[in-house]
Amino acid sequence: MGMRADSKKGKLAIICGTGDLPRLLAEECRYTSQEYIVVEFEHIPLDWVKSHPVIGAVFERPGQLFARLKDFNCSMIVMAGAMVRAQIDINRLDDKGHELVEILAKTSKAGDDRTLSSIIKFFVTNSFTIIGAHEVRSDLLPNAGVLTNILPSEDDKYDVQRATDIVEAMGRADVGQAAVVAQGICLGLESIQGTDRMLAFVKNNRKGYASDANGSKGVLLKAPKPGQDLRVDLPTIGPDTVQNVFNAGLSGIVIEADGVMVLNQQKTVSLANDLGVFLWVRQKE
Hints:
Blueprint: E1 11-16, H1 21-32, E2 36-41, E3 54-57, H2 62-71, E4 74-80, H3 95-107, H4 112-125, E5 129-131, H5 133-136, E6 145-146, H6 154-172, E7 178-182, E8 185-189, H7 195-205, E9 219-222, E10 236-237, H8 239-247, E11 252-256, E12 261-262, H9 265-275, E13 278-282
Parallel strand pairs: 1-2, 1-4, 2-3, 4-5, 9-11, 10-12, 11-13
Antiparallel strand pairs: 6-13, 7-8, 7-9
């Protein structure tokens, strides 16, 4: 656990979206004595920051943010958590904000991966180094293998291969990073709404499909997109994912080794065992 020795130069800025990941990174920095500061955007209030060093930020004013980060000797940035695309108030833009809006205008309709790549380039050209969340906490990427007491069946493995093919095709189109397959039938595809919404859809709409009572119940597969920059938007699962998979009537979860983070791994695996859901960290073939 902890940051790579060659990355520990200067202070780390944690640019925060929603979810548990930003908090886990901040707690890790505090635990390892890595100098850090939490960046809290005005439209994403955080209920856990009181015990951490924090600065506020306005999406339309990246120039202001850059200046403050440099004042704090922040040379590294990690982007963590879900970030909803906010409405931009053009009257609030600073000079760097105008630059960013021009960049986003060219990429926002091309898919998340291209948009995020352009944002990374924007930060890099302004003298910041972008690192991945898994470089701050290496334990977020679990070892390959089945982590639960429950193992996937042969029928499950067939569904996993089918789901792998589907997710790879989706990834090439820069659409999503997850799919649900049962008895060879695709029951759900991840889009901009995210994995939890997809699992809720499967729960409410699977009746009448994959109806062989003796067949597989279905699997959730998550993997990064082909060629994805793993410093940002790395797929993530956690206890909520396990609960939602169980609620959707699925047998298990499969994630790509070295490509999907597991939050609160001990709790996630324990819950999966309690619910009878397998969790397989599968090597990419």
